[in-house]
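Propose amino acids for all 444 sites.
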C-alpha cells in the first residue's frame, strides 16, 4: 500500500512537472509568432492594461451593487448630563393657567438608547441611474485601449525580432570578413617576403584586418543590444540573452503573407466609444435636475429611564416607521448647467477628433502601401546589385590568388561587396518593417 502511494505521488509530480515544462515558455528556436505570444503573456506594460480592464469591469459590479437597498443595524446609548427643557403652553397641563402662560417642560430622561434595523432604498435616483451605463462604457474604452496596446506590442516585438535577425546576419558577415581578411593578410605576407609587394601594401593589409576585427566587435555589440531589447519587450530579463535563439530568418519574414486588412480600426472604435461616453455623461447630467425619491424605514425600540437599566423590558418602547422622501435640487443644479455646457463642447471636440483620426489613418495607410511598393523595388535592386558585385569580388579573389591582380584592386572589390551586403540587409530590414507597419496600421 505504501509503495502504491509513493508511485501515485511520483506520477502526479512527474505529470505536473511535464505540464509545467510544456506551459513554461522557451527561448530556444523562438519563432516570430511565439515571440509575440510570449510578449502578450509577460510584458509588464500590457499586464497593467489588463489589470486596468479588470478594474473597469469591477466598477460595473460596484455600480450595480449601489442600486441594492441600504440596510444596516444601529445601536446608540446616550447619557444626558443636562436634561433638555422646552417651553410649552401652560394651559395644556394646567387648566387654571392664564392664557398665554408658558411652562418649562423637561422632555428627556437621564439615559436613553435606540436600537433597530434601518433601511433605505432609492426608488428613483437620477445620479446613480446612469452610473452603470457609464461604467460599462468606460470598461469598453479600457478594453479597446488594451487591444491597441496588444497591436503596438506585436509590432514592436516584430521590429525587435527583425533587428535580431539582421544583427545576427551582420555578425556572421563580420566573422566571415575577419576570416577573409586574415587569409588575404597571409597571402600578402608571403608575397611581401618573396619581394613582390611593398611594405606599405603589407601594412594596408594589416590595417584592413584590424578594421575587420573592430567591425566584428561592433557587430557583436549590436547583436547583444538587439537581443536585450527583444527580451525586454518580451517581459524577460535581458540577462538571459545567451539562452535566446530564433528560428526565423530574413527570407521567412520577407515572404510572409499575413492578412493585413481589418474591418474596424481600433483607434476609430475608441473614438466612437469616447463619443458615446460623452453622450451618456451629458444625458446623466441632465437627469440630475430631476428629484430623488427614496423609501426609508426603521424597525426597533427606544429606551428611556433615569436609571441605567437597559435590561428592564418595560423601559423599552417600540418604534418603527416607513416613509417616502422626495429631494428636489434647487441650488445644487447650478453647477450642472456649466457641466452641460462643457459636455456639449466636448461632443463637438469628440466629433472633430474622430474626423481627424479617420483622415490621419487613411493618410498613414496610403503612405504605408506606397512605402511597401517602393521598398520592395529597392530591395530587388539591392539584391541584384549584391549578386553582381559578389561575382566581381570572387573573380578578383581568384585573380589575386594567382598573382594576376593587385592587392589594392582586391581590397576595393572587397569593400564594394561588404557595402553591397550591408545595403541589402538594410533594404531587407526596411521592407520587413514596412510590411509590419502596414499590418499595424490596419488594426490601429
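Proposal:
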Amino acid at each position: 500500500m505504501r509503495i502504491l502511494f509513493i508511485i501515485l505521488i511520483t506520477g502526479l509530480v512527474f505529470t505536473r512537472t511535464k505540464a509545467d515544462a510544456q506551459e513554461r515558455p522557451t527561448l530556444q528556436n523562438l519563432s516570430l509568432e511565439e515571440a509575440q505570444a510570449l510578449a502578450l503573456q509577460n510584458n509588464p506594460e500590457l499586464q497593467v492594461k489588463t489589470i486596468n480592464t479588470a478594474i473597469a469591469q469591477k466598477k460595473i459590479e460596484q455600480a450595480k451593487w449601489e442600486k441594492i437597498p441600504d440596510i444596516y443595524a444601529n445601536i446608540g446609548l446616550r447619557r444626558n448630563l443636562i436634561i433638555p427643557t422646552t417651553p410649552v403652553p401652560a394651559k395644556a397641563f394646567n387648566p387654571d393657567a392664564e392664557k398665554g402662560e408658558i411652562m418649562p417642560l423637561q422632555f428627556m430622561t437621564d439615559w436613553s438608547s435606540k436600537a433597530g434595523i434601518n433601511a433605505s432604498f432609492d426608488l428613483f435616483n437620477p445620479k446613480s441611474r446612469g452610473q452603470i451605463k457609464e461604467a460599462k462604457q468606460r470598461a469598453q474604452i479600457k478594453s479597446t485601449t488594451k487591444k491597441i496596446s496588444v497591436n503596438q506590442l506585436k509590432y514592436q516585438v516584430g521590429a525587435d525580432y527583425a533587428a535580431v535577425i539582421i544583427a545576427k546576419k551582420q555578425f556572421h558577415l563580420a566573422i566571415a570578413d575577419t576570416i577573409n581578411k586574415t587569409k588575404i593578410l597571409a597571402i600578402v605576407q608571403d608575397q611581401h617576403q618573396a619581394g613582390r609587394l611593398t611594405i606599405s601594401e603589407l601594412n594596408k593589409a594589416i590595417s584592413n584586418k584590424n578594421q575587420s576585427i573592430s567591425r566584428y566587435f561592433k557587430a557583436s555589440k549590436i547583436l547583444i543590444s538587439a537581443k536585450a531589447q527583444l527580451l525586454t519587450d518580451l517581459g524577460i530579463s535581458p540577462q538571459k540573452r545567451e539562452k535566446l535563439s530564433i528560428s526565423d530568418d530574413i527570407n521567412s519574414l520577407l515572404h510572409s503573407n499575413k492578412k493585413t486588412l481589418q474591418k474596424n480600426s481600433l483607434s476609430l472604435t475608441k473614438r466612437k466609444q469616447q463619443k458615446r461616453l460623452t453622450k451618456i455623461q451629458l444625458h446623466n447630467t441632465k437627469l440630475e435636475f430631476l428629484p430623488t425619491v427614496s423609501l426609508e424605514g426603521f424597525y426597533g425600540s427606544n429606551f428611556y429611564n433615569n436609571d441605567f437599566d437597559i435590561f428592564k423590558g418595560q423601559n423599552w418602547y417600540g418604534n418603527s416607521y416607513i416613509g417616502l422622501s422626495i429631494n428636489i435640487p434647487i441650488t445644487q443644479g447650478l453647477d450642472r448647467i456649466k457641466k452641460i455646457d462643457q459636455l456639449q463642447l466636448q461632443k463637438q471636440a469628440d466629433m472633430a477628433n474622430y474626423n481627424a483620426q479617420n483622415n490621419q489613418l487613411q493618410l498613414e495607410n496610403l503612405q504605408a502601401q506606397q512605402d511597401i511598393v517602393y521598398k520592395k523595388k529597392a530591395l530587388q535592386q539591392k539584391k541584384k546589385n549584391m549578386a553582381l558585385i559578389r561575382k566581381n569580388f570572387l573573380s578578383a579573389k581568384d585573380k589575386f590568388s594567382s598573382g594576376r591582380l593587385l592587392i589594392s584592386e582586391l581590397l576595393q572589390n572587397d569593400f564594394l561587396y561588404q557595402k553591397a551586403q550591408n545595403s541589402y540587409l538594410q533594404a531587407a530590414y526596411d521592407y520587413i518593417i514596412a510590411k509590419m507597419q502596414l499590418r499595424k496600421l490596419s488594426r490601429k
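The first strand starts at residue 70 and ends at 79. The CA atoms of residues 254 and 362 lie 25 Å apart.
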